[in-house]
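$ run holo --ligand "magnesium ion" --emit tokens
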Amino acid sequence: MTSSNKRSKKFFETALGSFLEGLLPILILLAAWIIASGSGRLNPIVLPPPRSVFHSFTEMLLDGSLLSSLGISLIRVLKGYFLSVVLGVGLGIIIGLSPHMQRLSNLIIQILRPIPPIAWIPLVILWFGIGEGSKVFLIFLGGFFTNLINVIDGIRYTDKKLLEVASVMETPKRKYILELVIPAAFPSIFTGLRVSLGSCWTCVVAAELVASTSGIGYMISNARNYGLMDVVIVGMLSIGVIGKVMDVILKAVEKRVLSWTVDQG
Amino acid sequence: MSGTDHTGAFQEDILEKNYIIADHVSKTFFRGEENELEVLQEINVKVQKGEFICIVGGSGCGKSTLLRAIAGLDCEHEGEITVDREVVKKTSKKRGLVFQEHRLFPWLSVLDNVCFALDEGSRAEKEAKARQSIELVGLAGFEQAKPKELSGGMAQRANIARALVNNPPLLLLDEPFGALDAFTKIQLQNELIKIKNREGSTMIMVTHDIEEAVYLADRVIVMTNRPGTIREIVSVNLPRPRNRNEYHFVELRKRISSYFFETPDIQEDYNI
Ligand SMILES: Nc1ncnc2c1ncn2[C@@H]1O[C@H](COP(=O)(O)OP(=O)(O)O)[C@@H](O)[C@H]1O
Ligand SMILES: [Mg+2]
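-- output --
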């Protein structure tokens, strides 16, 4: 018993094994969904059967509408994300390095941060109209504060012991910032980059609520108007899967860039 | 005593004798209200240029605090510390400090960590200097290793290499060899003496190893427990290279041990 236990434990610790174990609950949920729909007790308008969701999926995949919607949304997200990274990291470094800037900005950041991007929509439409600009801005808002705060904290909480080393060596300011403070903040900055990409992607539906006629968010709200729940579900799951893929990619980059951190193998 | 008839040389002589002056240095840490910790009390000492000083004392008696004060990392204390005619008010490149923990930058290789200490010259020049220093501490071959790949002793050697590469006229070392095996320790002690002789630098080393103190130091400062005061300053007038088993060496070691252990002989026997 113990030996077989050991073997199964080992298998689930391999990359393939842990992936399969993670897949298990999904398969169980899917099976439950299939059985529930097949029993005829589930109202297909409330929750369409997997079969029709799959049917819509293949149809939209084949006629290219799914990928083009995803592509349009993805480009918006990347634009907004890029802006949130450039401004968030840039401002974060400036604020993180200066106690004055920290005192000046702290309260305003704390107040603006909890406002969800959706609440900005009326103002954003007034400011940017209903074109691309407003959508990109909403996505930008979704990621900006996460980047900003992770950079500020990463710099503020740099290990004082390492800073003392530079102090003893009288390291010139420029080198101190570029070669010590910023690299030391990298783990925190990278966490921000990863989390904010997720938030930006999450914002895409909200952003496309603004008089949009394209994108995955539009696809979902449009299908809802026609009661096409299977299309809604295809849209939701696509957002989920793409989000996961983006995180996997960033994690791989992180692992390479931050190979020096102690907790990584 | 030569040159006393020549005023300039005379003055030079006095300045060299007073290279470091700690004048009534006391230090209290304030940790919240009503919680004061007196760590150093009335430290008065003068160090000559080129001298090798070792500080021994129980743990927590303020040895690191004293080194940090000399380095200029912590200047909030009573009294004054003067190094080379200047009152210490901030850190300086001229006062190198080997921290008790290795404090390497984890994202840089050993080579880059050592290079970081150098601000002048081309990259190639810096690397050449850094490699020399790395070789000196016996880390050749590990230039590209990251700190997390090093053992404690190797990391500590990289730390020492980083402090040596600048050749500071005053080198402060905080229990630098504590994490090393006996063999490497002896080897590095000899390297340190060689560097001191070659560069004419002044060294102050904190250690908990009394034998090490007697082997290295011109004078050993023995500190009392908290609050740390100077109990005695023991001159080690033994010729170099010193023989650790020679009678006078052992006698001195026993004498210093007797400050810490009530029955030094028994302690000695167990140590050996
Ligand atoms: N920054 C600090 N704040 C408060 N107490 C401190 C601080 N640094 C050191 N101490 C205390 O001062 C005492 C002496 O510390 P230290 O100089 O590191 O001793 P050691 O002789 O072992 O090197 C210890 O009791 C330590 O807890
Ligand atoms: Mg100490």
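-- notes --
Confidence is low (pLDDT under 50) at residues 266-272 of chain B.
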